[in-house]
């Protein structure tokens, strides 16, 4: 069995901005949330600048780049507008995600094969600017292999189908999704890709994913921001961190 290296927690603060935007104005401030998340043990901050700006704004990205002392993982669609913003800021990491204007949340992974040549050209300047490029994909061997072909350094596996199956009590589907996540983590690692995972993870679903030794980072947002309403952001994050660490230790026997 391979050793389990450190597992990082990236806290996604998008939905602090969702609440702010419900009324306009400045509160609650996602940058303040990001700084509290750092203090609570987040290893990085994730923010998704959607094309429709439904939560994070351009000004939030400007301020995050100024304020953070941990790395920013900048999630964005593969558009010229977003590429220009990423090239201006040169964040630590850029994660390319699919976007549909009408979707409630990021519904699936990017279909790399549908536009493989364009994506290979698209990520080249981002890598040259010093950002680590990650591709948000479903746990699918063809997508993993395509991510490697286009020159990505990292993949982030979409855990939404696994979390939905868990929430809906579809145990066989949940277990099948988990097996796919496990197998694709190992496959991607064998191809030299760094493996991250995220979307929809909660206290109840995080442990099995955290235990996969190839997974180096989990990005978690919506659940943590919701939980923070009841107990505060720092305790909510500290508990997630503790559950991740316990699962990691357990997987090392
Ligand atoms: C790509 C991804 O999974 C995150 O960006 C997260 O889901 C953000 O929330 P929304 O999908 O609701 O924008
Ligand atoms: N890339 C996934 C992410 O950043 C967090 O997703 P969620 O926990 O807000 O669903």
Automatic annotation (TrEMBL):
In the UniProt record, the gene name given for this protein reads pdxJ
> Which GO BP annotation is one of this protein's?
pyridoxine biosynthetic process
**What species was this sequence derived from?**
Roseovarius spongiae
What this protein catalyses is: 3-amino-2-oxopropyl phosphate + 1-deoxy-D-xylulose 5-phosphate = pyridoxine 5'-phosphate + phosphate + 2 H2O + H(+)
Identify the residues that bind 3-amino-2-oxopropyl phosphate.
Answer: 12, 23, 200, 221-222
Site entry: Transition state stabilizer: 156
Q: How does this chain assemble? A: Homooctamer; tetramer of dimers.
Q: Where does 1-deoxy-D-xylulose 5-phosphate bind?
A: 14-15, 50, 55, 105
Query: Subcellular location, in the record's words?
Result: Cytoplasm
Q: Name one GO cellular component term.
A: cytosol
Which residues are annotated as active site? 48, 75, 199
The protein's name in its UniProt record = Pyridoxine 5'-phosphate synthase
Which terms are listed as keywords in the entry? Answer: Cytoplasm, Pyridoxine biosynthesis, Transferase
The record's annotation in NCBIfam families points to: pdxJ, PRK05265.1-2, PRK05265.1-3, PRK05265.1-5
Q: What class of enzyme is it?
A: transferase
Q: Which superkingdom does the taxonomy of this entry point to? A: Bacteria
Family of the protein in this entry = Belongs to the PNP synthase family.
């Amino acid at each position: 069995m391979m050793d389990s290296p450190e597992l990082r927690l990236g806290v996604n603060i998008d939905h602090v901005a969702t609440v702010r935007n419900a009324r306009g104005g400045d509160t609650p401030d996602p940058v303040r949330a990001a700084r509290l998340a750092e203090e609570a043990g987040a290893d990085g901050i994730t923010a998704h600048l959607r094309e429709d700006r439904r939560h994070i704004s351009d000004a939030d990205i400007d301020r995050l780049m100024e304020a953070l002392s941990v790395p920013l993982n900048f999630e964005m669609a593969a558009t010229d507008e977003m590429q220009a913003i990423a090239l201006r800021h040169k964040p630590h990491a850029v994660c390319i995600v699919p976007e549909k204007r009408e979707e409630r949340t990021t519904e699936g992974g990017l279909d790399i094969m549908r536009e493989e040549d364009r994506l290979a050209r698209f990520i080249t300047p981002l890598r040259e600017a010093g950002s680590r490029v990650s591709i948000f994909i479903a746990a699918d061997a063809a997508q993993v292999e395509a991510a490697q072909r286009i020159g990505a350094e990292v993949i982030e596996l979409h855990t939404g189908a696994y979390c939905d199956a868990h929430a809906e009590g579809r145990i066989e589907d949940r277990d099948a999704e988990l097996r796919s996540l496990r197998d694709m983590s190992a496959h991607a690692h064998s191809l030299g890709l760094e493996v991250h995972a995220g979307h929809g993870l909660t206290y109840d679903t995080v442990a099995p994913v955290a235990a996969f030794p190839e997974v180096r980072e989990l990005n978690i947002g919506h659940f943590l921001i919701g939980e923070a309403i009841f107990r505060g952001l720092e305790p909510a994050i500290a508990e997630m961190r503790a559950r991740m660490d316990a699962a990691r230790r357990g997987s090392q026997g």
